[in-house]
UniProtKB/TrEMBL annotation:
It comes from the Eukaryota. Its main location: cytoplasm. This is EFMT1 methyltransferase. It holds the Pfam family N6-adenineMlase. GO terms for biological process: methylation. The lineage of its organism: Eukaryota, Metazoa, Chordata, Craniata, Vertebrata. It catalyses: L-lysyl-[protein] + 3 S-adenosyl-L-methionine = N(6),N(6),N(6)-trimethyl-L-lysyl-[protein] + 3 S-adenosyl-L-homocysteine + 3 H(+). The keyword Methyltransferase applies. GO terms for cellular component: cytoplasm. It is found in: Cytoplasm. Keywords: Cytoplasm, Methyltransferase, Transferase. GO terms for molecular function: nucleic acid binding; protein-lysine N-methyltransferase activity.
Amino acid sequence: KMDDDDDDIPQLSSHTLAALQEFYLEQQQREGMKTSQGFNQYSIGSIEEDWQLSQFWYNDETASCLANEAVVAAGKGGRIACVSAPSVYQKLKEQDGKGFSACILEYDKRFSVYGEEFIFYDYNHPLNLPENLLPHSFDIVIADPPYLSEECLQKTAETIKYLTKGKILLCTGAIMEEQAAKHLGVKICKFIPKHSRNLANEFRCYVNYASGLD
C-alpha cells in the first residue's frame, strides 16, 4: 500500500520547517533587494564575510576613506594593489575608470568573479605570485593581513615590499604597532578604521608616507 511507504519518509518538525522557510524567504528578499537596487557585483557585502577565513569587512565609510586615500596616494594613472583588503578593492571598483587601476590579492577564490584583476594569494607563500606581477610595479599597496600575529605580518610584509614602489598603507590591530614599524617602517595614523561588525581588537591604520589619514 502507498501509505505504508510514506511512513518511511523522514518528516521535518514544524519548527524546523518554519525556520527553513524563513531562511529561504530572507534569501529571496536579499536577492530581490540586490536586483531592485541595480545591485553592483563590486559593492561591499556582495560577497559575505567568512569568519573561518578571518574575514571582517570595513564599514562603508572606512572603505570609502581608504579607497580615496589610495587613489590620491597612487596619483594619476596610478596602480593600486589590495592585499587581503577586498572591501577597499570593491570601493575602488565603484570609481572605475577614474584614472587608476587596481588589483586584488586574496585567498578567498569567491573573489575570482573580478576576473583578471583577481590574484590568488596565500600569505604562507608570500612571493608565490604570477610572473606578470612585476616587482615594484604598484604606486601604493594597501594590506590587511588576516591574522594578528607577527608571522602573518612578516610574511605579508614580504609581499608588500615586493609589490610597492614605496608607499604602504597597512591596516591591522593596534597591538601590532611595534611589529609594523619593524617589518615595514610604517607609523600609526590618527584615522581609526571601523568594521561593519564590531571587532574585539582595536584596529588602526599605518603608513610610511605623508597621508591624508592624520
